[in-house]
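Model the whole thing, not chain by chain.
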Amino acid sequence: MAEDLFLQEIINITLLSLRVSGTAVLMGALIGIPVGTYLGFRQFKGKKTMMRLVDIMLKSIVNTFMGLPPVAVGLVVYLLLTTSGPLGWLGLLYTPAAMVITQLIMVIPIIIGVTMSAVGSVEKSIKEKALSLGATENQAAWLVLREARVGVLTSIIVAFGAAISEVGGIMISGGNIRWLTRTLTTAIVVETELGNFNMALTLGAILLSIAFVINLALTILQLKGSRR
Amino acid sequence: MIALEVINLSKEYSGRLVLKNVTFNVREGEFFVIVGPNGSGKTTLLRILDLLEDPTSGKVFFDGEEVDYSKDRVALRRKIGMVFQQTLLFDMSVYDNVAYPLKIRGALTKVDIEQRVMRMLEDVELLGFEQKNALTLSGGEAQRVALAQALVTEPSFLLLDEPTANLDPKNVSIVEGVLSRLNRENKTTIIMTTHNMFQVERLAQRVAILNEGEIKTIGAFRDVFGYQSPLAW
Ligand SMILES: Nc1ncnc2c1ncn2[C@@H]1O[C@H](COP(=O)(O)OP(=O)(O)OP(=O)(O)O)[C@@H](O)[C@H]1O
Ligand SMILES: [Mg+2]
């Protein structure tokens, strides 16, 4: 019976982790890839000095936010969602949704940043070639994105890796409630504190396996993507 | 009938004039060749004609219509094919590379596209290469794919920037064969640059000499080069 519960809790925790980080990354990709493509693509235009300045500012901001401390994000989300906060009426604090929001804020800059540099490093001549063959601006942008696909995929995997191993942010906004908002990372923290090393080590092994799979995918991608 | 008219075209790069009052006409269906030493402005001129670069001053007319370089130029560009000096193909199969210009126009069915692409690959003698990734091709093969990309849409104007540099004699003759047939049968107006004087003699109806951004002479090969042996170049 106790064995059963042990297993059940581990499955519950693992699935919640995958679901929260997966949802955050999926939503982050839907926002981050178009924005990153736009920003990466823009540098081809930069003729006017003013536009170039705006461009540099935007890109520096994105790069700064790529290294956002998760704890700080968690705190901001907490303050927004807490009962007396501006979005308190949504009643989302200490729910998986709050954790998704936290990780979403974290992964969007990562996805934008990596996509942006992948798109930006596709040769300018690829875009010109597409235009010369009769592509519209949008068709040319799509082609550049396609040429940058390895980098774009990388951004998603890197973002997922960051999200699944993040602990500070979801601890604050999710509250680490057993069976409800307890994820692999937050569970490891609390089980270690309680001296349940059996549980903590099992969860740690699962987290490590996920990290390994992510890195395996990244390595394969990089090996495959070195044609040009 | 005049198909292309270039009037007083100049181009400046950071204060340096690389094209100076370039003026010439090309007749419909003519094979027009531009020769000139490295850095004389050939590529710059072709890039302006392909609407990739804006001229600093001067006018360009295609089929009697002046090009407005400040406007969206997709429609006009779709009548012009260009083979670049630096071959650059997309990271996809040879087939998809050649089909790309047809796909983005969205006017043909899949079956029609396939028919055209295969015919084009046959012309450049690359049948059997369809499924190969274009980035794994040899230089000569890649250059022929680039030619197929530019020709598959049957453009009215064809701009060729040293299309046979880096090719062996066999490949040169394949490319030249395709070009002369195209010029003869489709009446495609062709503007080509080259350093190969034999090629000028074989293909050109008229030739222009560009030097330091200025057109020095224009005329038939015999008139331009007189008794001077082509070997002297
Ligand atoms: N984007 C650019 N910015 C600045 N200078 C340029 C640019 N493009 C070309 N130039 C200069 O313009 C001049 C003409 O270059 P262009 O490429 O048109 O010569 P070309 O006749 O095609 O030479 P080649 O036979 O070597 O291909 C060169 O001096 C070159 O350095
Ligand atoms: Mg050149």
